[in-house]
C-alpha cells in the first residue's frame, strides 16, 4: 500500500508569557508525532480531551503552522507550501466536523453548500455541476426533496450526511474526521459510521479519524494510534490493539470503556490522577504520574516508540521488545 499521507516528527508548541517576570512558557500540544496513512486505511487517533488530536488534524489540514516536522501528501512535501500550491494541495485533504451545524452556512441550501467548493475551484458549470451535486447527494443518501432545504431543516444525522457530501465534493484523497459522530444519538452514529465505511471502499479514500470513543474506533478503524499529552504512545493494527493493548495507558483506557469485546472482560480501570498540563510536562515518560508501573528509569528518560510485538509500536520502558521477550507471547 502506498502512503497518501506521511507525517514525520510533527510538532506544535504554543508559546505564551508567564506573567510579568516569568519568561516564556510553551504548551506542547503535539510533540514529534509520526504516522503514515495509506489508501483504504482508517487511522484512528484516540486519547483524552486535550491530548492533541485536533491539533494534529489542524496541522495536517495546514490550518496551523507546525513548529517542526514534515507533512507529505501523495509524496509531495506540503509542510511549508503557501499560495496556489497550498490551495491545490488542500483539495486533497478535506475535513468532516464534529458539529455539522456549526460548520454549515445557515443561509445556504444543501445544494448551495455542496456546490460552493466546486465553484470555488472552478469545477464544472451548469449541467456538469448539477450532475456532480446529484451524484454526491446520492452517495451520502440524501433524497431529492431535501436538496433545497436549509441546514436547520435537517436532523443531526442528515446534517452530517450533508457535511460529508461537502467534504467529498472535490474528490479528496484523505478525509480528516474530527469526532464526526460524537454529537449524534447512538442509533444514528452507526448509520453514519457505516456510510463512512462504504464511501471509503467505493471512493478509495483514506481516513484520519479522531475519536475519544473506543467502541466507535473499534468499529471503524484499521489502525489505532493512542495519544497522550501530545505524543503517540502506542500504534497498532486494529485487531491486535483491541486483543492486546500493550501500553499501560492504552490498557487503562480500554479498561475504562464499556466492555464490548470478550477479551477485555475483567480488565479494571487503572486510570487515576489528573492529567498533567501540556505546559508543565513531567520529566521522562509523560504518563509516569499516572502509571502503576512507573520506575526511576521512567522519570529519567522518555521511552522511544519502538516495535514491541504483533505489529505494535509502543513507547514504554517496561513493555519488552519483540526480540527480547520470549515470555511475552504467553500474555496474549
Ligand atoms: N490555539 C491554541 N493556543 C494555545 N493552546 C492551545 C491552542 N489550541 C490547543 N491548545 C492546547 O493544546 C492541547 C491540545 O489540544 P487539542 O489538540 O484541542 O486536543 P484534543 O483535540 O485531543 O482535545 C491542549 O492543552 C490545548 O489546551
Ligand atoms: S515508560 Fe514507565 S511510566 Fe511510562 S508508561 Fe511505561 S512503565 Fe509507565
Ligand atoms: Mg479535539
Number of helices: 11
Helical amount among residues, as a percent range? Answer: 25-40%
**Each distinct ligand:** adenosine-5'-diphosphate, iron/sulfur cluster, magnesium ion
Low-pLDDT runs of 5+ residues are 258-269, 327-332
Structural class of the secondary elements? alpha/beta
Question: Would you give the CATH topology of one domain?
Answer: Rossmann fold
Rounded mean pLDDT is: 91
Order of helices and strands: EEEHEEHEHHHHEHEHEEHHHEE
So what's the CATH class of one domain? Alpha Beta
Largest sheet: 8 strands, mixed
What portion of the residues fall into strands of 2 or more residues? 15-25%
Strand order of the largest sheet: 6-7-8-3-9-10-12-11
Radius of gyration (CA) equals: 21 Å
